[in-house]
Amino acid sequence: MDTDDAQLVLRESEFAQFRELIYRIAGISLADSKKPLVAGRLHKRLRHHGLGSYAEYFKLITQRDDELQTAVDLLTTNETHFFREEKHFHFLRDRVLAEHPKGRTFRVWSAASSSGQEAYSLAMLLADTLGERPWEVFGSDISTRVLDQARSGQYRMAQAHEIPQPYLRAYCLKGVGRQEGTFIMDPGIRNRVSFRQINLNERLPDVGVFDVIFLRNVLIYFQNETKRAVVSRLIERLRPGGYFVVGHSESLNGVVAGLDPVVASVYRKP
């Protein structure tokens, strides 16, 4: 069917279908205000498949797992930056790493890593602070598309200003030729960071235990029941004495027991 853009209006009933689907799969609650976002992000997929309505596209994703994953990727990707909410990185360096036992591998999980900026920010800080001492960064996300970018470790040069200059010089390589206008994380950093697709709204795979788990600016999209379930799953993967970090605008007060507040948006497992 030829697509007439003038007819591509996301109806309330169609929006309700996509909203229920994303909630069921990812636990994410899309507010009414997100309707234009849903329409905008899915519009290109309708044009790609030559479909004339969002209802037709919804039928398609119920029949094709690959297109369902594409839709999930588009509707769950969130904005991220290098060294976002930098106070958390200062806390990690000055408090957490300072008290970490020297003989044990330090493990940190970026549990909603998106395209990898948070994970690589953590890796640069650990490389600078711990040096040759053992450490590793694990990143996960529900979106396969952003994880592909994260694994590449390549970003637009416009994002370089978010990285402290000493880190930029030590751990980032400027693109030349066809790669001009981008930079890539140094292989020594990329090799210490791994990524895996994980849906936090489902039973977690065996990924070991961690000294710190970052779950920042994600809980705001969950209803309380989902928040409790997701945080409870993650706490099981946190080492006793480990730290759980949420976004500055988020709180675990009244959400889950088993974590003690340390400073704003940082909690510790007894």
From TrEMBL:
Protein name: Chemotaxis protein methyltransferase
Keyword Cell membrane part of the UniProt annotation: no
Enzyme class: transferase
GO biological process, one term: methylation
Ligand binding (S-adenosyl-L-methionine): 78, 80, 84, 118, 141, 199-200, 216-217
Start and end residues of each CheR-type methyltransferase domain: 3-270
Keyword Oxidoreductase applies: no
An annotated Gene Ontology molecular function: protein-glutamate O-methyltransferase activity
Annotated EC: 2.1.1.80
Pfam families per the UniProt record, alphabetical: CheR (PF01739), CheR_N (PF03705)
Biological function: Methylation of the membrane-bound methyl-accepting chemotaxis proteins (MCP) to form gamma-glutamyl methyl ester residues in MCP.
CDD domains: AdoMet_MTases
UniProt keyword list: Methyltransferase, S-adenosyl-L-methionine, Transferase
Catalytic activity of the protein: L-glutamyl-[protein] + S-adenosyl-L-methionine = [protein]-L-glutamate 5-O-methyl ester + S-adenosyl-L-homocysteine
PANTHER family: CHEMOTAXIS PROTEIN METHYLTRANSFERASE (PTHR24422)
